[in-house]
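Fig. S4 source data, part A: sequence.
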Amino acid sequence: MKKTINEVVVNEIIVDKSRFIAYLINVNSLDEFNKFLDNLKKNNPKARHFCYAYIINNNKKGSDDGEPKGSAGMPLLTSLEKNSLTNVGVIVIRYFGGILLGSGRLLRTYVKAFEEVFKKATLIELVPKKEVSIELDYDIYDTFKNYLKVNHFNVVNTSFSDKIVITFIVDLDFNFEELNDKYLLKLKLIDIKDYLERNEING
């Protein structure tokens, strides 16, 4: 199951006098991620490296930003993938402390930087469902509204004109034919589209 986060989470670790400040962020576009990264660079002009990874929809990337190849970007990206995260970026700022750590130790340090900031995050589970819009007459509105309430459907919108249109969320395996039969074909299906239900979970 895919997961994301809502907030920006920050954590710092120190290894042999080098400071590693990790930011875990929710992002919905590459432009949004780049703006956040640019802002960090402006606010941390003395930092040596800004290593990062992100998974945004179907796009993913890791960057070592001057660290030895494979010691930061890919481990950070692998950490995002291992935890089934989406629309999430991680940026680790390094203030060099004068002591070289070596590729192997660097890799472990960047993974640790991710793990420590990840512990602070509130995870949001993304559950695939369907958003359905149904048109109906006024004479069955109260009955249908009660049906939705009894069956714990999440109603996201109701609009009133000559007809009523109710938009609500259903599971992927919901049987629409049974619904229509129940209300004697008085319901008209207007639209169905993909929907991700967001449920807060413990990390």
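Fig. S4 source data, part B ends here. The chain has two domains: 3-121, 127-201.
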